[in-house]
Amino acid sequence: MSRSTSTHSHSGRAGDGAPTEDLHVTIAQRLRGDGLRYTGSRRKVVEVLAATDRPLTIPEILEQADGLAQSSAYRNLTELIGVGVVHRIVSGDEFSHFELAEDLTSHHHHLVCTRCGRVTDFTVDDELEAALDAALDAAARRQGFEPEHHRLDVGGRCADCR
Ligand SMILES: [Zn+2]
Ligand SMILES: [Zn+2]
Fold first, then answer.
1. What are the strands, taking DSSP E only, across the chain?
2. pTM for the whole structure
3. In what order do the strands lie in the sheet with 153-156?
4. Are 112 and 155 in contact (CB under 8 A)?
5. How confident is the model over 114-158, as pLDDT tens digits?
6. DSSP letter, residue 56
7. Which domains does the chain have, with CATH numbers?
8. Average confidence score pLDDT of the chain
9. 48 CA distance to ligand 1 middle (Å)
10. Which residues surround ligand 1, an ion (CB under 5 A)?
């Protein structure tokens, strides 16, 4: 089972708020493959998601994307999900959360607060990732399934809600 080992790491996301031009080139190519242009509003959504260190809800995206209409945000997110640029995290609360796809960023997991709905990224060390892969690989293959990647989110109460 292989994990995403992209060179775009989270360390480049959180601080400077300026994703590399490579990211935009890759995204423009994916959109073009589906006959879509990388419009200003699509790029605005991507820039907001690239500048944060956790998945965001639509209200949070609108707050940070200056002048973006709610209807465009919905449409752009749907299109970006369709071409594999954005991933939707279903956390069971009223708001979906959105983030850039792992192959554009880096492999990580989520802490999902079941009370306030906040979703936070977290990583585990390589040793634990390898152990998880081995255990999940064995379990999947027992079902005749060929695993390619894993997603693992942890539900519970965040520090504020405990
Ligand atoms: Zn919470
Ligand atoms: Zn993992």
1. 86-89, 97-100, 109-113, 119-122, 153-156
2. 0.81
3. 119-122, 109-113, 153-156
4. yes
5. 888 899 999 999 999 999 999 999 999 999 999 999 999 999 999
6. B
7. 9-106 (1.10.10.10), 107-162 (3.30.1490.190)
8. 88
9. 22
10. 113, 115-116, 118, 158, 161
